[in-house]
Each structure stands twice: as structure tokens, then as C-alpha cells.
Amino acid sequence: MTMGLGxxxxxxxxxxERLVAIGQGLLRVLFVLVVTRVGISLASYAVEKFMAGxxxxxxxxxxxxxVETIGALLRSVIRYGLYLIGFLWVLDAIGIRAGSVLAAAGxxxxxxxxxxQNLVRDVISGFFILLEGQYEVGEYVTVxxxxxxxxxxxxxxxxxxxxxxxxxxxPNGTITVVTNHxxxxxxxxxxxxxxxxxxxxxxxxxxxxxxxxxxFQVDYIVDGPKVLGIVDLGESGVKIRVWAxxxxxxxxxxxxxxxxxxxxxxxxxxxEIPFPHRVVMIKNPGQEEPR
Length: 291
Known about the structure:
Elements: H1 7-13, H2 16-54, H3 58-61, H4 64-93, H5 98-132, E1 140-143, E2 146-153, E3 157-161, E4 167-171, E5 178-180, E6 186-195, H6 200-215, E7 221-233, E8 237-246, H7 251-269
Antiparallel strand pairs: 1-2, 1-5, 2-3, 3-4, 6-8, 7-8
Helix pairs in contact: 2-4, 4-5, 6-7
């Protein structure tokens, strides 16, 4: 028995028609690869032009790095999408029905999709967070009740570092409410009390004068400080409220400075700052009640 194929069998397999079909298939594959490559180049150029125009938007003007991040993400998505289309065209060019391949892949993809739906949701939410510029690295925010400074923004999750040092990871798909505290000047509010025995008009005038002098000693105050007036009559004293607006991130320091300035002014003018106190009466059981 002769093993293998004889010359006659090869002549039956390799026919001119088959050679022409193989050549046409190779040409189609080459054409698909060229078209795919050109499509990727054109798409990358379009994304670059689009993002270049978007840099002029006020959201991205101060942070061009975000434009580059979004542009790279768009180019990556388009590139892989065109790769998939080109792969299906190649299968069709070599005689493999893409529909059967997609059907087989669809069954596995469906099972995988149920497990990866949270990941997809996180990635899509992360993309829109970057696109809309809801927050940036280094900004102080409150995300779903968690406050801190943005340490990292990823497509899947956001990393926040709290003032206590705790590092909080929040999946982007679960974020519902974002409060950004770093986009505008912030208000600084301080309440100061003085004793009931003091003249409230004099106390307000002393605080106002001291704060006006302090205003020209620092450069991070945007507006104020202003004494708004009496806001409470407490158990031990009268409370007045001081308001000012500081450059973003400086509001806590401004509050400390305003308390110090008012305290020093009250001490110079002899205005009493009250402290909690109570009068205790001790009754001797053997002593008669005074008439």
C-alpha cells in the first residue's frame, strides 16, 4: 500500500481554478488589512482634531492632560472596533462564515457578559466622569458621603484619600452624587461670643475694625471679612457671626485666622469672651429659710 498522495492526486487538488481562488482570497485579505489600517489612521486623525477643538472648552483649558487621556481612550476603542470588523472581513474573504463564528462567540459572550456587567458599567461611568470633568486629581470632593482629595481617577474606580489618611476606592459605576469643593472660592464662617455685660455695638465695631486691618495682611481673601450681626443669645453670652470668602482650599486657615484676630482684639479692648459657668446654692438643712 502506498502512503501519501501521488502526483496525480496533487494535480487534482492544485488546479488553476483553485490557484486563482487562493490568489483572489489573498488579495481580499490584503485589501481588508489595508482598509483597516487606513481606517484606523483616519479615525485617529479625526479624534485628534476633535479633541484639539475641545481643548478650548473651559472645562479642559486648565487641564490639557485630561484631553490627552480621553483622546487616547477614544482612539483605543475605535482601533479595537475596527480590528474586530477587519477580522470578520478576513474570515469572510477566506470562506469562513462570520455569522457562525459570531453565534458561537455570542453564546460565550453572553455568559461572560453577565459576570462582567458591573465592570462594563464601571468603565462606561469612568469614561463619562473624565469626559464631563466632574472632578480632577488633587481636588477636594465628597463622593457618596465620602470626603477627601482625589488621588487617582481610573476607568474602573476612583481613589480618594481622606484627611485621616484613609484611602477609599469607589467603583465608578456606583457613584451617584458628587460634590466638588474645589471649583470656586469657598466661604469661611466663624461664630464668636462675648458676655452679656458688654455693649454689643462696641463689640461688633471692635471686631469689624480688627478684621478690616487683617484683610490687607493676607492675599487669599476674595471677599470680606464681614460681621453679619448677632445670630444667637446663648446661655453665657451673645454670639455674632463673621463671614468671608477665601481662595479655594484656604477657607479652613482663614477661619482659624479670623478667630485669632477677633480674640486678640477683644483682649486688647477688655471685652469679655464668656465661658460656661453655673451658680450653685448649697442649703444647710438645719438653717432656717431667710425671710
